[in-house]
Amino acid sequence: MNITSAEFFCSYSSLNGLPSDGRPEIVFVGRSNVGKSSLLNSLCARKGLAKTSSTPGKTRLINYFLINKGLYFVDLPGYGYAKVGQSERESWGALLSGYIEKRQEIGLVVVLVDARHPGMASDREMIEYLDYCERPFGIALTKWDKLKQAEKSKARRTMESCAPKAKFIVNYSSFSGEGREKLLTQLDIFSQ
Known about the structure:
Blueprint: E1 6-12, E2 25-30, H1 36-44, E3 62-67, E4 71-75, H2 86-102, E5 106-114, H3 121-132, E6 137-142, H4 149-162, E7 169-171, H5 180-190
């Protein structure tokens, strides 16, 4: 996939009013602070396209980005340790699960996993949930540049055992750009 245009489209706080124009959606999901915004900016080669923050849990809405005028990248709220109240965390969970279960336009879900912490319970739960919903998914191991060589092998093996039904596992570094072309190639397959 060659990304020639990428623009913020809209944010949604509920499942009502989501785009109904038939464009396919590639969804990005992961724990809070896994680097979703950084990956989206790197992938689209657009600094500031998705807002980044050092505070986990800043993405509280379903954010749509229009790619090449023909498909959407969708950034879902992070799961995990965001410092918010229980009721807000529950409403995020309901929003996230409702979207994944009901949205017909989803072509692929990309689960971002921090390569420094592969196989965490919350990531395993998401992978099992996607499998249960029969959603095709792939894995992007983020922050790959922060690992030593021995850690890279271990992280890769851990994810292969945690996600045997993943369509792909790509090692990704938003800092160096490693894995960008491999991930774009995989996304191209599911963007039709």
